[in-house]
Design brief:
This protein is mainly β. The chain has a domain of 90 residues: Beta Barrel (Thrombin, subunit H), CATH 2.40.10.480. Helices cover 5% and strands 37% of the residues. The strands form 3 sheets. A 5-stranded antiparallel β-sheet has the order 4-5-6-7-12, with no helix packed on it. A 4-stranded antiparallel β-sheet has the order 8-9-10-11, with no helix packed on it. The chain has a 3-stranded antiparallel β-sheet with strand order 1-2-3, with no helix packed on it. It is globular, with a radius of gyration of 20 Å.
Length: 173
């Protein structure tokens, strides 16, 4: 058993059932995540989704960590980030059979997204039917202008370069 909590500091904490802190996570995507407002997992607890006050949804892969949480090589990896709403995300749901994420916002909208890519399918109440098989059309809701961002592992390992800028007085300048 595992407990997961989302916090105003954008931090996600994983706890053992005994109350011991096992892991702390922060979104890496570079997007302004803001306070986290909601989270959910799939039925196998391999995928964790978090929603933020800024309208972003983050997808995390927890599968390798849950196999052996004591092995430091088994990390929880942020896989995807997308702007789902212009305002706060208040609820999330993963529909595994159709591979769809449902998001709800304080603006009153409920939207459908592809679970693996973050592609927008539409909103509840639209005139046209949802086309859940076509992920080739890149469309966005009218109030969102950011496409989904796939988080690559190479991004996390930025090499720090040591640069020396000596302060020297140049009288000629």
């Amino acid at each position: 058993p595992l407990l997961v909590s989302a916090h105003e500091s954008s931090c996600i904490r994983l706890w053992s059932i005994q109350g011991n802190l096992m892991k702390e996570l922060l979104p890496f995507s570079g997007r302004p995540s803001g306070p986290l407002t909601t989270l959910c997992t799939d039925s196998f607890i391999k995928i964790l989704l978090t929603g933020s006050k800024e309208g972003y949804v983050f997808r995390w892969n927890m599968a390798s960590f849950l196999k052996d949480s004591r092995n430091r090589k088994n990390e929880i990896k942020e896989q995807l980030c997308w702007r789902a709403h212009a305002t706060e995300v208040v609820d999330l749901l993963i529909e595994e059979e159709k591979n769809v994420v449902v998001t709800a916002s304080i603006d009153g909208s409920v939207r459908l997204w592809h679970a693996r890519t973050g592609y927008y399918f539409g909103y509840f109440g639209q005139a046209r039917k949802f086309e859940l098989t076509d992920t080739s059309r890149l469309i966005l809701p009218s109030d969102v202008s950011d496409f989904s961002a796939i988080i690559k592992e190479e991004d996390k390992r930025l090499k720090k370069k040591k640069v020396i800028y000596p302060l020297m007085l140049d009288r000629e300048k």
